[in-house]
Design goal:
This protein is an alpha/beta fold and 126 residues long. It has a single domain, classed as Response regulator (Rossmann fold, 3-Layer(aba) Sandwich), CATH 3.40.50.2300. It contains five helices and five strands. The protein has a five-stranded parallel β-sheet with strand order 2-1-3-4-5, with helices on both faces. Helix 4 links the parallel strand 4 and strand 5. Helix 2 runs parallel beside helix 3. The mean pLDDT is 93.
């Protein structure tokens, strides 16, 4: 089972990798939305979870989320947006566009693990 971590910060990608690896995920990492879409295309069947930053170069999180949701081959993928943007309108926009969850930076490891668990349960039940 793979998780695709998408963030322009190497530090954040590494932190998230250290959180999700012990709970059973092999990770793929991308520094922008275009890299994420390329990796997702090559690994679509294996990727269960995308942890997606909002603010990135080339394709931002919103554009990447929109591209993922337009492709039916990715309907099984759970998407959690991660961002310093914590305004209700941003969260509502992400959820309205198809993100399954949203977590604000900074976050604790336990908080992200719980968000992943709850969000995956919700996606699997639907």
């Amino acid at each position: 089972m793979k998780a695709l971590i998408v963030d322009d910060s190497l530090v954040i990608r590494s932190i998230i990798e250290k959180i999700v690896t012990p709970i059973g995920y092999e990770t793929l990492k991308a520094s922008n939305g275009q890299e994420a879409l390329d990796l997702l295309e090559k690994n679509a069947e294996d990727v269960e979870l995308v942890i997606l930053d909002w603010n990135m170069p080339l394709l931002n999180g919103w554009e990447t989320l929109s591209a993922i949701k337009k492709n039916g081959a990715y309907d099984h993928v759970c998407i959690i947006m991660v961002s310093t943007e914590a305004e209700d309108e941003k969260i509502d926009k992400a959820i309205g566009a198809g993100a399954h969850g949203y977590i604000s930076k900074p976050f604790e490891a336990e908080e992200l693990i719980e968000k992943i668990k709850v969000t995956l349960e919700k996606v699997r039940a639907s």
